[in-house]
Write a structure and sequence with these properties.
This protein has 63 residues and is mainly alpha-helical. The chain has one domain. Helix content is 73%, strand content 0%. The longest helix is centred in the first third of the chain and has 22 residues. It comes from Maribacter polysiphoniae. InterPro entries: SHOCT (IPR018649).
């Protein structure tokens, strides 16, 4: 009977941690590359085509 309580506590703990990490996606998120970030910003309309091309040129010149 006591073992069941430990299992329940463990399950609740794991669910709590996973829900917290889900809300704060940056906790477990991998680091994005600059080009991926630029592509996302362009897709969202945050940068114009001209800005995109210029920043893409700058990023590629650093490699």
């Amino acid at each position: 009977m006591m073992m069941y309580w430990w299992v329940i506590v463990l399950v609740v703990l794991v669910l709590g941690i996973s829900m917290y990490a889900g809300k704060n996606g940056n906790v477990l998120r991998r680091k994005q590359k600059p080009m991926d970030i630029l592509d996302e910003r362009f897709a969202k309309g945050e940068v114009s085509k001209e800005e995109y091309e210029e920043q893409k040129r700058i990023i590629n010149s650093k490699n």
